[in-house]
Amino acid sequence: MIIRNVRILGGEPADIRIQDGLIAEIGPALQGDGDVVDGGGVIALPGLVDLHTHLREPGREDAETVRTGTQSAARGGYTAVHAMANTSPVADTAGVVEQVWRLGREFAHCDVQPVGAVTVGLDGRQLAELGAMADSAAGVRVFSDDGKCVSDAVLMRRALEYVKAFDGVIAQHAQEPRLTEGAQMNEGVISGRLGLTGWPAVAEEAIIARDCLLAAHVGSRLHVCHVSTAGSVEILRWAKSHGWNITAEVTPHHLLLTDDLVEESPAGAYNPIYKVNPPLRTRADVAALRAALADGTIDVVATDHAPHPVEDKETEWSAAAMGMIGLETALSVVQEAMVDTGLLDWAAVADRMSAAPARIGRLSGHGRPLEAGAPANLTLYDPAPRTEVDPSAFASKSRNTPYAGMTLPGRVVATFLRGKPTVLEGKLV
Ligand SMILES: [Zn+2]
């Protein structure tokens, strides 16, 4: 197959020849047999890799399945996702991670790499079978109780020590539980005005500071999920200045949206579409997160794609589930927040959304530069069109997007997984 006339990382136009699932050749006016895809001058990026996806299977197939979640991922330009462990049953044994891994091999539109739970049942009391999950067919390297924080410092230390043996990483959902009991939205002026229980920045920052120190103490790898405050950025900058093995991610929604949407938005006040964990923060936080992603203090954009059925989301604020879907809008939101603002170029986007997450997750077949010999995992993206987000067009089973009706730039034109198109002309193959 030959893909004609694409601009790799936004550079000069070139053709890409794909053979046996690999990039065989890159250059001008390539010759060869087989199918031809006309790229029409759009941008070619390495296939995106998500470190933080909730596929909901097993247990909540009414919200998402491996099939629909990975279809959603492919439409967003992803060729691999890490499937979070807070399923039902929890992915805390070799059996469950292998089940998710097998579902991925059978039904997925992109590669599915299961994340293992840190503690049994995510209950924060007893370490799960980390070694058995690492040794399983799923080859787990990322462990997380995401949705919950590993708040016990002794348990967190043991987990960090344990995963060193197989080059694993603990991905922490940093939320001090006592400081966030009943918390509903960012603690600040607006939570005070709306009478909603506040979620203080310090609840995130205290855990990040503690975990950076623990990771340094035991010499292990720590990854911080969905960083949301300016203070967290300062702590990470300090920790990284010591050379500690710490990485961090930010979600697209924390790069674009702010807590004042809870008070006033086109969707009305108290609309639970904006209820998310960690909560949307202030404009100052958003500015700090953007700067941190630009300077590399934050390594990765991860979606925290969190599908919920309508009945769990369209209810009163305090009863509504936390989370928003994000796979199909991630690249557009990153373009809006980071590229069109001049903070990142396309090469840096490829780093934050493909190379860095693949490296942290130890996915050797993903995140490679687009060059001869690399697996043909790539995304064709047209940054030019601006269109209104239409959730009814999503492949996800859920519709809880905060961007419905918003106009965002860009469109994923095609996605290729080991040379096979999963999306062509914006549509699933
Ligand atoms: Zn989380």
From TrEMBL:
Which co-factors does it depend on? Answer: Zn(2+)
Q: Which UniProt keywords apply?
A: Hydrolase, Metal-binding, Pyrimidine biosynthesis, Zinc
Zinc is among the record's keywords: yes
- Give the Dihydroorotase catalytic domain ranges: 43-230
Which PROSITE patterns does this one have?
Answer: DIHYDROOROTASE_2
Q: What's the Enzyme Commission number for this chain?
A: 3.5.2.3
Active-site positions, per UniProt?
304
Any note on cofactor binding?
Binds 2 Zn(2+) ions per subunit.
Q: Which GO terms describe its cellular component?
A: cytoplasm
Per the record, the pathway is: Pyrimidine metabolism; UMP biosynthesis via de novo pathway; (S)-dihydroorotate from bicarbonate: step 3/3
Keyword Phosphoprotein among record annotations = no
Question: In which residues is Zn(2+) 2 bound?
Answer: 146, 173, 226
Instruction: Please tell me where substrate binds in this chain.
Output: 54-56, 86, 277, 308
Q: Which GO terms describe its molecular function?
A: allantoinase activity; dihydroorotase activity; zinc ion binding
Q: Which reaction does it catalyse?
A: (S)-dihydroorotate + H2O = N-carbamoyl-L-aspartate + H(+)
Residues annotated as binding Zn(2+) 1 are 52, 54, 146, 304
Give a GO biological-process term.
'de novo' UMP biosynthetic process
Biological function? Catalyzes the reversible cyclization of carbamoyl aspartate to dihydroorotate.
Would you identify the family this protein belongs to, as annotated? Belongs to the metallo-dependent hydrolases superfamily. DHOase family. Class I DHOase subfamily.
Cross-referenced HAMAP family, in alphabetical order? PyrC_classI_B
Q: Entry's NCBIfam families?
A: PRK09357.1-1, pyrC_multi
**What is this protein identified as?**
Dihydroorotase
Give the source species: Nonomuraea glycinis
